[in-house]
Design goal:
Layout (H helix, E strand, L loop, with lengths): L4 H14 L23 H8 L18 E5 L2 E4 L2 E2 L1 H16 L3 H16 L2 E2 L2 E2 L1 E6 L2 E11 H17 L6 H16 L1 H6 L1 E2 L4 E3 L1 E3 L2 E2 L3 E2 L7 H10 L11 H4 L8 E3 L2 E3 L9 H5 L7 H4 L4 H16 L8 E2 L5 E2 L8 H6 L8 E2 L1 H6 L5 H14 L4 E2 L2 E2 L3 E2 L7 E3 H26 L3 H8 L9
Antiparallel strand pairs: 1-2, 1-21, 3-6, 4-5, 6-7, 7-10, 8-9, 9-12, 10-11, 13-14, 15-16, 17-20, 18-19
């Protein structure tokens, strides 16, 4: 996209002056457009959206979400670190608030981009997690720069830029320019993650050394990293990361018959629902995946399990004693089904998993969420819904930013999908995305 230098210069100066202070605005109200509130779930969605208000789940100095808060007696305690994917989802929520007319949200988007620009990185890749110290982001212990979170952030940034591609507002044009520069600066990092011998991406870097596992499954929250790497390096020709890093990832399903009906659900490694659904917040996988029924079957089996156990759907989440576990349903876990490995099990449900199912079955998701609230009204706080409840009604006191972002993001996915597609089309990537997704098929049939 050809940008006008003079307009951008003015916009950049404006952005710098606005961002001289840590917080140029106070976000004490966040709403999205009416079309995204289900008629009978408006209050509940707004409650969870309110997590992203200043003074709730967002740090006043770095202006990014806290990874975790604990809410007791309607008072919160905070964990002073953040997760890159949490920042990604926060940015997309801010864009939707700006579209609804909140001009403060536009200022905050610029502020968050500044936080990201100033954050320490490894070969252009962002660390996970970042400690929040003295109003700055500092790499957490281990200095981990993972493929998964950088892939999620890349698609989030594509959505932010895509939202403003058709705008003549110089501030919005400056946002696009800053995002393009940030994504371009990551190219050395993506190139460093390509394992030519295996033809796959490494999982990331830790303490300056490669993490020795590969991104090798499509039914995993990491799949967007393997999708983005070939796109952002496409212009390098023979040196580009090949599309095979996505195409050669494996996918497995399993066949079940339950109550007279046949199901062929996609298997995630842990049996956790978010591993299958998180990427759909950024990409319309209903349209991209050749046979989406494997996601629909996983959703239906998760919902049946949820209903039978009087709890939300199952995914990685807090525990009811405020720890964290990669919860999953064994019969939907590749590790359990194909390798007989032990997994954390499905004794605890998490509201964000049920919310993610809105992207597959909106009516069923809202009905299930309302049922959860009716069974466990104490799950709702002014900061959002507690992260976990088990079949006995015991609850965590944790609220996790990642899970809140997925909860809210699922309801906004239609708009976010459109913004991502607009950006990818403008950069000449969309046909590559469609081509790679043609490989999203069950490897049992090969």
């Amino acid at each position: 996209m050809n940008l006008k230098i003079k307009s951008l210069a003015g916009a950049t100066l404006m952005a710098v002056s606005v961002l001289a202070n840590a917080s140029a605005v106070t976000l004490d109200k966040l709403e999205v457009r009416d079309q995204f509130y289900p008629a009978d779930f408006r209050e509940e969605l707004q409650t969870n959206l309110n997590f992203f208000l200043d003074g709730k789940g967002v740090d006043a100095d770095t202006l990014v979400p806290y990874d975790t808060i604990w809410v007791k007696d309607n008072k919160a305690e905070y964990a002073y670190y953040t997760n890159t994917t949490e920042i990604a989802l926060y940015l997309n929520i801010l864009v939707e608030a700006e579209k609804a007319g909140n001009q403060k949200a536009l200022t905050r988007i610029q502020e968050v981009l500044t936080t990201l620009e100033e954050a320490p990185k490894f070969k252009g890749l962002f660390y996970w997690p970042y400690d929040i110290k003295g109003g700055e982001l500092k790499p957490g212990k281990g200095e981990i720069a993972p493929a998964v979170d950088n892939g999620n952030l890349a698609f989030s940034l594509a959505a932010v830029a895509g939202a403003y591609l058709n705008s003549t507002d110089p501030v919005k044009q400056s946002i696009i320019s800053r995002i393009d520069q940030m994504l371009k600066a990551q190219i050395p990092g993506w190139l460093s993650l390509y394992d030519k011998d295996r033809g796959l991406l490494w999982g990331g870097w830790q303490n300056g050394e490669l993490i020795e596992y590969h991104v090798d499954r499509k039914a995993n929250e990491s799949r967007l990293a393997a999708l983005w790497a070939p796109l952002i390096t496409k212009h390098l020709g023979a040196e580009a990361i090949p599309a095979s890093v996505f195409n050669d990832m494996e996918t497995y399903t399993v066949s079940y018959r339950l109550d007279g009906k046949n199901y062929t659900p996609i298997l995630t490694w842990d049996g956790a629902y978010f591993q299958a659904l998180l990427p759909a917040i950024w990409l319309n996988e209903k349209e991209l995946v050749p046979d989406y029924s494997m996601f629909e079957d996983t959703t239906q089996l998760q919902r049946i399990y949820s209903k039978r156990n009087n709890m939300p759907m199952v995914s990685s989440s807090a525990t009811v004693n405020d720890e964290y576990r990669p919860f999953g349903i064994p019969h939907l876990s590749e590790a359990w089904v194909r390798y007989d490995d032990k997994i954390a099990g499905g004794s605890t449900g998490t509201p964000h998993a049920t919310a993610l199912s809105y992207m597959v079955d909106p009516e069923g998701a809202v009905k299930s969420l309302k049922s959860i609230k009716a069974l466990y009204p104490a799950i709702e706080t002014s900061y959002g819904w507690y992260d976990a409840v088990d079949s006995k009604g015991r609850m965590s006191t944790k609220i996790l930013s990642l899970d809140q972002g997925m909860f809210v993001g699922a309801f906004l996915a239609e708009s976010i999908n459109a913004d991502v597609e607009r950006y990818l089309r403008a950069r000449g990537y969309w046909d590559d995305v469609k081509s790679m997704y043609l490989s999203f098929k069950d490897d049992r049939a090969k």
